[in-house]
Meiosis regulator for oocyte development
Amino acid sequence: MSGSKPDILWAPHHVDRFVVCDSELSLYHIDSAVSSELKAGSLRLSEETTATLLSINSDTPYMKCVAWYPKYDPECLLAVGQANGRVVLTSLGQDHNSKCKDLIGKEFVPKHARQCNTLAWNPLDSNWLAAGLDKHRADFSVLIWDISSKYAPETAVATEKVRLSAGEPEVGLVVTKPLYELGQNDACLSLCWLPRDQKLLLAGMHRNLAIFDLRNTSQKIFVNTKAVQGVTVDPYFHDRVASFYEGQVAIWDLRKFEKPVLTLTEQPKPLTKVAWCPTRTGLLATLTRDSNIIRLYDMQHTPTPIGDETEPTIIERSVQPCENYIASFAWHPTSQNRMVVVTPNRTMSDFTVFERISLAWSPVTSLMWACGRHLYECTEEGKASSLEKDIATKMRLRALSRYGLDTEQVWRNHLLAGNEDPQLKSLWYTLHFMKQYTEDMDQKLTGNKGPLVYAGIKSIVKSSLGTTENLRHSRSGSDRQADIIQYLSEERSLALQLCGWIKKGTDLDVEPFLNSLEQEGDWERAAAVALFNLDIRRAIQILNKGASSGKGDLNLNVVAMALSGYTDEKNSLWREMCSTLRLQLNNPYLCAMFAFLTSESGSYDGVLYENNVAVRDRVAFACKFLNDAQLNRFIEKLTNEMKDAGNLEGILLTGLTKDGVDLMESYVDRTGDVQTASYCMLQGSPSDVLKDERVQYWIENYRNLLDAWRFWHKRAEFDIHRSKLDPSSKPLAQVFVSCNFCGKSISYSCSAIPHQGRGFSQYGVSGSPTKSKVTSCPGCRKPLPRCALCLINMGTPVSSCP
């Protein structure tokens, strides 16, 4: 390629060889770089590869194009198109068998001299070589030569000896009679054979793309276009062809050859080369003049045009293999996404285009990602604890254990969830108490607003304003009695029941609750609840019992001794020591106990704002010791905190109301647990809350999750559970009848035909009911089967039809 930029070609059957051609042909062998030091005569292509020059052929001047013989034998045969239109077969001196020697030196000469623009070997019949020439008014521009034909004396003359770089002089032949002549009085700028048929040749002529069929050379299929340069066929989709003109690339579908199926974004500079990747489907690389950027177009979907507007989806990206301008590039024939680029000064770089990594989550939380031809899978470790697992894994395991479906013992649902999340435990105990105390609740507290208990303690407390009684009690078990003001009302008693401190009824005895805490080994909490109910002696007993059980903290004895010395004197040494001890304790309930004992009456911030104490215990404490104004302020503030944090313990305050939906929304945003949100909202929410679009969104997403996990039966169980708690969600039963002959819908076609009234509206047949019946299809007038008549006229189920 005298006077032009160098080009580069990979050997078709030697993945470690390529040739660089400009004014001469240079054959290189590519190898791995085993060390940082280069061998003599080697060039570094990348950190991993080097290239070694094997041979040079400088006996073919005025090169314009080069094509490598596609078959393995002879392996180093190349065809060179020259500026005078001649095509010369030459070699790089690597093959000396008789077949190669017979071919080397042959020249194929057109009738009139003009530039040879392109060459293309037939991939199946490798003896056919197509050459594209410039225009001549008295000659053809597409010549197909048979390199193995036998020549008559009049068609071949002896030529001068041709000296090769690595062989002895050979005598060649000049061939002037082509096998086929195509494209008269036109110019051919690019060529390629169509892989689907060895007799079809696609040529980029001067003003059109033409498909020549060698079985009938007088006819051709063509389309007028300016994009006639660089025609190339996608190796993975033989009906897809790319060509270019100036800075624009056209993608063609040979099955719909009237116009391009896609025109790629026009570049500011003229294009010099386009090439499909041989190892990756639908990946096209383009190079513009004076640029160090190669643009890649990834055709995501094979274009199969149905209508005129159908286009394939593409992803465009750019890569920069080197810093200097790129003269040409060539994809590696077998290594995935690998190419070698060459600069105008013959500097070469070995470059791999890394695939974009696409990620996909499976419904069972396995992570899959694709990189090139490789798929990688990452699964969650089975040894991870429940709290460390992804929420999708948790929800899946809970669904298998029928989580949320226990409507009798509602509190057991937290056990089905693994009994590891204290917020879930609090939620389900709250819902359990709500259900338990709603069944026989006095409706005078609720009016027409539905069960007040499901409205939450916030609403219950507001309804108690002005009905609270003040009671004075002293701490039982203390030598020195100090009166403490407690507050009592029917609503506050209900709040204590929802907190779990007392049982249903008027009895305010907390002993059953203390016994249950002792059975669970929650000694500190039990002692604190006993103390908050002004029973110091019982609190001391619980602490001593916990210390002697072997499972409790040994420091419980020390705390019990400290409690036994309680005095209400403000300046006593006991108060001073307890205030110091409180700061050294780690358990929040022990801290709250001493905060309560050392607080002034009506000022209990040390207990109320001990955040590690359960919300239900702090609320129950507030219901006993705060007046109406203080209680409302505290409940309002705590409710807002719970809503902002998405803390499920706050459902005790908000209930299943709009505030509860706001709280649950924060919880779902934080955790993604639509499963708990769905079951919770279905438990006792009023209809207006269930119709909230957020609630419906959680429910539908959970149903979709069950479907994605293929938990068909679990989804059905959930739907049944939902229909029981929310009858409005139950879909209407529908039956559609169509004619077996014409396929028309009877319920639709018969809308204007009179029907008997019974069972009429149930099956979707509209119209005025009369005594007449449907006996035939209104579309084709053929008689209907007896079962269909029963469905339409009588509303009789098919299963019971005689």
